[in-house]
Write a structure and sequence with these properties.
There is one protein chain. The protein has 254 residues and is of the alpha+beta class. It folds into two domains: 3-125, Nuclear Transport Factor 2, Chain: A (Roll), CATH 3.10.450.50; 136-253, 2,3-Dihydroxybiphenyl 1,2-Dioxygenase, domain 1, CATH 3.10.180.10. Helices cover 23% and strands 37% of the residues. The protein is built from four helices and 14 strands. The chain has helices at 3-25, 55-66, 144-154, 208-220, and strands at residues 33-40, 52-53, 74-82, 88-97, 102-112, 118-125, 136-141, 158-163, 166-171, 174-180, 201-205, 229-231, 236-242, 248-253. The strands form three sheets. A six-stranded mixed beta sheet has the order 2-1-6-5-4-3, with helices on one face. β12 and β13 form a beta hairpin. The relative contact order is 0.11.
Amino acid sequence: MDVKLIQRKEQLKKVAETYFEALRQKNFSSIPFSDEIAFRAPLAPGGAHNPITGKQAVFEKWWKPLEPALDGAVINVVDHYYNESLTGIITKVDITIAVLGITLRAADRFVINDKGEITEQENHFDASPMKDFIHHIGLRSMDFDVTKNFYQNTLGWKLVMDKPELIIFLAGSVFIAFKEADPRDKQYSSFSPFEVGLDHIAITCETEEELHRFANKLAAAGVENTGVKLDEALNKLYVAFKDPDRIQWEFYMK
């Protein structure tokens, strides 16, 4: 393929991913909108057929009302599709809106000029939530401060609720909720996978690179873990580890 075509594809992809990273970071100023951007979205003023025109108008009419819904949002890019003339790109994403507890499949069409500015954008999404058969997992913790530090700072999960009686993290599209433990017998003040009930919880990793990154992060933090291993029964790579209450987790290849 011609070098210029490769470079143009990379430019289109970078601009699209910059937009979604701006949503994650709630940073409108980092989106490379042109001053004359024409923006369409089903929930924007004017709907999908009447564009909002101009960067400042997009900020006032669309971004400011949207911003509160971005708290705790998880956005996973699924794929990119380029038009034949390479004037634009369509990017498919899964968006989990933490404050509503739903995950949507969206597709954004970007028209991007040679300077890497978005001159047109049109958003489409499936308004019916994707089917998530597990809404949340409820666990018990001996020490909320220790638990928050581990899941928020070591694992990097988003803390979406922090109350004296309940803390909730978001792992992908699943909520992980903790209440404080009050064991009737203090010998059961840490988790055991050998009792009736829970053995371990496995969280999906999309790529092998992501799996190794988590394994390295766990090792650097001194967290007890297996390192990356092969589950011979299912022929899948995984890393198993324990949280401060010795609850057993796995990051497991999709």
